Amino acid sequence: MTAQKTALPAAQKRAPRILQNALVQWIGVAALVVALIVFPLVASPTLMNIGVFALIYALPAIGLSLLMGLAGQVSLGQASFFAISAYAHAMLITRTPIPEVLAAVLAVGVSMLIALLVGWPLLRLRGHFLALATLGLGFIVYIVARESDFTNRTLGISGIQRPEVFGMEIGNNGLFFYFVAPFVVIGLILALNLTRSRAGRALSAVNDSELAAESLGVGTYSLRLKVFVLSAAFAGLGGVFYAYHVRIVTPEIGEFHLSVEFLLMVVLGGLGSVWGAVAGSFIVELLRDGLRAIIPTIIPGATGEVQLIGYGLVLVLVIILLPGGFVGVVQIITRWVRRMLGKGPSTTARSAKLQGASDQTPTGAFSAAIAEEEAQRIDSAVEQAAANLPEMPTPVATGETVLRLEGLTKRYGGVVAVDNVTFDVPAGRITGLIGPNGAGKTTCFNMISGAIAPTSGTVSFLGREVQGRKPNVAASAGLTRTFQNLQVFGSTDVLGNVYMGRYRNGRAGVLRGMLGMQGAEQRRHRDVARDILDALNLGDVADLPAGDLPFGRQRMMEVCRALALEPTLLLLDEPMAGLSGAEREVLAELLRRLRDAGLTVLLVEHDVAQVMALADQVAVLDDGDLIAIGTPEEVQANPKVIAAYLGTEEDEAEQVLEGVAAVDAVRSDDPKEDDDA
Ligand SMILES: Nc1ncnc2c1ncn2[C@@H]1O[C@H](COP(=O)(O)OP(=O)(O)OP(=O)(O)O)[C@@H](O)[C@H]1O
Question: How does it sit in the membrane (predicted)?
Fold first, then answer.
């Protein structure tokens, strides 16, 4: 790319927000530490016992909240990993001379290994297979523990001694609370880091749109598997502490109801929030034991099942009345306080931002002065955009084949959506893919990007066959796309969406994310994402929720997101739809400049005039067949193409004619030639 990036002070603009978020988090952690220090000093022995269990259970709850909130998967067997580790640790420390720390590491490792074996085949499948499989695992663990001599059947493993720290036995509950608390705090910090990391953001994006995330290079399966194994590690650590605290491990700890309780902790705390998991573990433990004490005073003589029913009823009521859980309540209160303090954004300012500058163009701009002003505005927008876009890598020389389709076919039962399509897409050129409605353009796009597998035929990108592979395979090699039906990451803001486009350019994995060792990388990518947004006139809405943007601006945001990947081949599926006239002009000119800088574009667009004016090569599909390919002039003169458009709707035929007029106007210097044409 010829234009150099200007050093926009993006980091400066973003810094206060990042610092604010980090500050809020550290204040929260500090408050939790203080609360955990004070709790044993003020709690009664009963409350102390509840507190220790809540802390122990907070660990599997944190793990489950990562699995549900980040990986979008439900596990009904979190208690199994808790139990496996508790048994493993109990057996290792009572039956072998292995040092206790090593025994704990091995026990957690066993839980992680089982999770890996369970998740490996299942997480490839979409749907709730993991929930069903973990439910089954729970039953297996319980039955094996109860029936096996190895686990000492119903008697369980006893004789567990509490650990010693610096020669002092952690005998009473207060000391044990202080022993477990640092692990919960560290676990919470690691989990919080993960949610904000490259991997965490990628998983959130997967929950919003798996297809869009994969098209940006996110390997959904491996990330989900890693989070599932990590979630089992949290459960395993909880199991180790449980064994120490209760001093006996019996089959009951693997029972289904404990898995449900972990689920409740996550839901009551606030689904998708790690803080919620910690709060939820205390809420559930307090509710259970609180009700156990309260119900007999309300209903004299009530025991056992009645207490359980009362507990269940209260939980159901809490979930119905507060679906956002504890964290949801905190958010409502925070928003209310901010409104009271007048800190919320004004609605007028917000909607002005959302409208965008291009939509504020005066209507009926017929006068020469206004037309001139508009042209200048478009020119300066293009210059600004060109100056701020990242470099586009060009691994192949202009004109060489970047993408080759050979015999590409897709059948849906009796419908042949794409039939034996073969053509090449040359590097550094814009190739238009047009055709009447239902011609097979989107199906073709989906097969190229990996969204669907072809029935037969091949798709070679940079000489490597990618057909039938997941979209992240092609994306990792530099092929990405936008979508006809927008695929916005609604859980984040506009900047967060474009930042996801940088995924392929990052390196940090789950471990580095948890350890918070990717700040510099994140800042660099954020700066690039902000530059791209500024370039395409979306800088002013960078911090707004992506889903709040009007349709046209969301489409522009998707283009920004795709450009952020610095692709070699960019597939644009109807990028002009929903854009204002000025936005179309800016985008068209930008695409020309990007093409001149080496970017290869494959463009599906219903605006035939734009395609003819933009493309170097046009391929025409009709009823699944490739009926023509060539320069715009060749294609327009092809009788099959005219017949295809005329053979369908009359207005489409008019579009073709408009396309002819438009391309003549753009390409011909000689007005006389227009008349001849
Ligand atoms: N999942 C599917 N199941 C069955 N038929 C399908 C499926 N997807 C597409 N088709 C059919 O395949 C053909 C090509 O559809 P496709 O969406 O690729 O066309 P298109 O050229 O993109 O159309 P448009 O311009 O209207 O978006 C159509 O007849 C369509 O009904």
Answer: Multi-pass membrane protein
Please check whether residues 147 and 72 belong to one and the same domain.
yes
Query: Is residue 312 domain-shared with residue 431, that is, in the same domain?
Result: no
Q: 585-597: per-residue pLDDT in tens?
A: 888 888 898 898 8
Alpha helix segments (H runs only) across 440-536 = 441-449, 471-477, 494-500, 510-514, 519-535
Q: Is residue 12 part of a domain?
A: no
How big, in percent rounded to 5, are the helix, strand and coil portions of the chain? 65, 10, 25
Q: Specify if 30 maps to a domain.
A: no
* Domain around 408: 384-676
pLDDT tens track for 367-426: 455 556 666 666 776 676 666 666 666 788 889 999 999 999 999 999 999 999 999 999
Q: Is 220 close to ligand 1, i.e. is its CB under 6 Å away?
A: no
Spatial CA neighbour of 561 closest among 390, 393, 447, 433: 390
**CATH number of the domain residue 264 falls in:** 1.10.3470
Tell me, what CATH number does 484's domain have? Answer: 3.40.50.300
330 shares a domain with 456: no
For the CA of 412, the closest atom of ligand 1 is 4
Ligand 1 mean position, distance from CA 608 (Å): 19
Ligand 1, atom 4, residue with closest C-alpha = 412
pLDDT level of residue 195 (50, 70, 90 thresholds): very high
Q: Record the pTM.
A: 0.83
The Cα–Cα gap between 162 and 177 comes to: 12
> Could you tell me if residue 270 is left (phi over 0), alpha (psi between -120 and 50 degrees) or otherwise beta?
left
CA of 417 to the centre of ligand 1 (A): 6
The answer to whether residue 370 sits within a structural domain is: no
Nearest CA to ligand 1 atom 7: 412
The residue contributing the CA closest to ligand 1 atom 26 is: 437
Candidate from 408, 442, 452, 483 with most ligand 1 atoms within 8 A of CB, to mutate: 442
Domains held by the chain: number: 2
416 lines ligand 1 (CB under 6 A): no
466 shares a domain with 325? no
458 and 408 Cβ atoms separated by less than 8 Å:
yes
pLDDT digits (tens, 9 = 90+) for 286-327: 988 877 777 777 777 776 677 778 777 877 888 888 888 888
Q: How does strand 430-434 pair with strand 600-604?
A: parallel
Task: Identify whether 213 is part of a domain.
Answer: yes
User: Where is the domain boundary, 307, 336, 365?
Assistant: 336
- Å from CA of 491 to ligand 1 middle: 29
Residue 391 and residue 313 share a domain: no
Mean predicted confidence (pLDDT) in 204-217: 94
**Average pLDDT of span 112-131:** 89
Structure tokens at 414: 């009796």
What's the 354 CA to ligand 1 centre distance in angstroms? 33
